Amino acid sequence: MAEEQNPDAAGMDEDLADEWAAAMSEAGDAGAEDNLDDEWAAAMSEQDVKPVKLEELSTPSSSGADVGSDLDLIMDIPVTLSMELGNTEIAIRNLMQLTQGSVVELDRFAGEPLDVLVNGTLIAHGEVVVVNDKYGIRLTDVVSPNERIRRLK
Question: InterPro entries, alphabetically (predicted)?
Fold first, then answer.
């Protein structure tokens, strides 16, 4: 079966093709990109931009009274102090098999100092002591503030 073409339909297809060609040529103009750049430049020039004045930072005073009052602000903030005897990696299968009396080998040797951590940050090393039937720790080496900051980075 041969399809017959309607002459009116063929003319409409040509008109539609011409419209698409015109639209595509307008969209492909290089001048359109320049117009977009000009619109952005105009929008940016309309913005009311003012410079921000920054306050000069002053050096902290060397008097002890000011430092003491600044420290008073943070003295009541609670922190977590913990001692780390050692650690190890263990598979979940082995972890699930642990029972009362199981022994877990740690990565430290006997007599090696413990790590003293504040909120997870190493601040000192120490050794276990017993005072009045309670465990305690004697600090043997305190990490300098500069070293603590270096380790955070």
Answer: FliN, FliN-like_C, FliN/MopA/SpaO, FliN_T3SS_HrcQb, SpoA-like_sf
Tell me, yes or no, whether 19 lies in a domain.
Answer: no
What are the strands, taking DSSP E only, across the chain?
81-84, 114-118, 121-131, 134-142
Task: Give the three-state DSSP class for 58.
Answer: coil
Residue 94 lies in a domain: yes
Top-confidence residue, 48 or 90: 90
pLDDT in tens, 61-76: 555 555 566 778 888 8
Domain count, the chain: 1
Dig out the tokens for 148 from the structure. Answer: 């603590």
| CA–CA gap between residue 144 and residue 148 (Å, rounded) | 6
